[in-house]
Structures are given as structure tokens and as C-alpha cells.
Amino acid sequence: MVYxxxxxxxxxxxxxxxxxxxxxxxxxxxxxxxxxxDLIVNTRLEAYGPSSxxxxxxxxxxxxxxxxxxxxxPLRRRDSAxxxxxCVSSVDPxxxxxxxxxxxxxxxxxxxxxxFTVPNKPEAAKLMQRRFDIGLDQQRQLxxxxxxxxxxxxxLWDAGIGLVVCLNDLVRKPSRGDAWVSEALSALLDPxxxxxxxxxxxxxxxxxxxxxxxxxxxxxxxxLTDLGEERDLALQNAHxxxxxxxxxxxxxxxxxxxxxxPYDQQLDFDLVLVSDCTYNSDSLPALVRTMTALQSSSKTLxxxxxxxVRHQSExxxxxxxxxxxxxxxxxxxxxxxxxxxxxxxxPLDVIELYExxx
Length: 358
Prior knowledge:
This protein is an alpha/beta fold. The chain has helices spanning 158-172, 183-189, 208-216, 232-240, 262-266, 284-295, 316-323, 339-343; strands at residues 3-14, 19-27, 39-48, 56-62, 69-74, 83-89, 98-99, 108-109, 111-113, 116-117, 127-133, 142-147, 197-202, 220-226, 248-253, 271-275, 302-307, 327-335, 350-357. Strand 14 (220-226), helix 4 (232-240) and strand 15 form a beta-alpha-beta unit.
């Protein structure tokens, strides 16, 4: 199970005391469980600008059974003219990014606050940043902003992390003979392929999965889609992304309950990405209809689905896919790290990965 450090109250500088205060939680993607063990939380104050000092780190204990943890970081008076940011982590707070690959899935994902300043903006925006090292150079980390609020579409989800791990593995090791996906999909994702890869992600949320693919693979066009009111974070993340050579990311509105626009039907997509979109069984017929419409213009279309099964009703997804003529080509699982469950010899959560064709 992956846990996420989140700001319940974003960092705020109290000018009278020169103390920065915030409140965090360590919770699951849905916010329905909290980290169950004692833990040392590292809070690192980073300062940027000509008068920047060395970063300062404080340590606070998260106790088993709590749901929230207040943090306080003193500010040196001579820091007052600089741009400030807090990083809250359970590991080395000096790390530039959290490794994310098949051999390194974080159990607790750190959070970086938005920046704030003493004279003009003493409170950070209600956003938090995630940074992942996906094996590229330091300037091309996977950087994703998400909200601090309760809207689940504006947070990272476990299956998204699992799908990024999967794509990272498939793109960076294209010659392996033991790839779990079909030879056709493996060939599509091979970065040595001279042709442009055209990808559409449905229900993209923050846009993490599609952006990661555009950063990993050259000559890749990614269209991120979600409901209109959910697109702003994906737009922000896509604008910040440093994609690979000749790759690009576009963000548009797409409602599964509405017919696919003629322009979209004319595009010959190679791959559909779907991550953690099966939890709401009421939306599944519309999701499958959308994929069927996309496939009608691309007979070789592949669909890559990642899901963390949360309840039995999600099984209807496979019945709907079969009814629409989609065939399950490949299946794999990615276990999620969980030290507490491992020590107690309890089963680990897994991300299910499926490839479909039609």
C-alpha cells in the first residue's frame, strides 16, 4: 500500500513569531486509511534567492493511531527576503526526487509545498508537488502538482503510479524477451521505432501517466483527457513537463457520456491509457463505449489498463469489454510496498495491469 503525505493546512508563516506552521496527514490515495505505525517525519525548509542559506531540517514523530500531525519550523530572520518552500518526507529530505521504477516504488510519497515569501505571500497555495526520478537526467524529473483538498480526481492514485512503473520498464528495456505485454505493444513502445506513437489517456486526472510516457519516449504525442472542470491541474503539469525529443502533450475535455467529436475519430491512436477509472461501476458503460468509438478509427489500437481492485462491482468492466469485442491479451501484477503488512505477514496490495485489443 502506498501512503501519501498531504497538507491538511498548507504552510503559513506567522510574521510575529517567524515560525512556519502546517498540518499534514499520511494517508492512502482515497484518504480512507492512515499510516499505522510510528514514523519520524522530516520537514525541510528550502530557501531560494541570492540570500539563501543552507536548508534546515526538523524532525517530528508521527505516532501510530493519529490522523494528523502539526509541524512547526522556525525561520531565521535573515531569511526573510527569500522564496521559501517546505518538503515533508519520511526519508532523506535532501533527495531531489523519489525513485520510481520496478525496483523502487515508494511506500510513503513525499510532498513539496508551493512557494511562499515573508513580505508578500506568507501562505503557500493549496497545492502540493510530487517529484519522481524515472531514470532520466535531473532536469527531467517527473513533476506533478496535485491539490490539497478532498476532490479525488485531483490527487495521485496508486494505479497511476503502477502504470508509470510499467511504462518505465517497457520503454527503457525494449529488447527484453520476458516483457509481459504482447509483442505488438512492446514494439509500439520501443523508443528506437522511427514512427510517431499516438496515445490518448482517458480520465487523466493530474496527467501523471501520459506525461511520464511523453518524457520517457521520443516521438510520442499524448492527448490527456478528462472532464472540463478537472483539466486545470493536467494543463499545469503538461505545461511544466520536459518531454523527450519530438514528443508533445495536449490536454482537452472529453466526457464519456457524449459522442466522440469527429476530429477525435479521425485521429489514428495507437494506444489508450486507462488508470484507476474502474472504481465507479456506473461510469463503466460510458468508458467502454468511448474506447469502442476510438477503436473504430484504428483497427490496431491497444488498450492498457491499470487498476487497484477496491470492490467486486469492478468485475463488470471485463464483461463490458468482452461484450464490446475487446480481448484480454496480457495480464500482470505489481505488488505495492508495505513494511507493516510484510512484518505482519499480511497480503500486499497489488496493481492489476491488463492489455486489450479488438
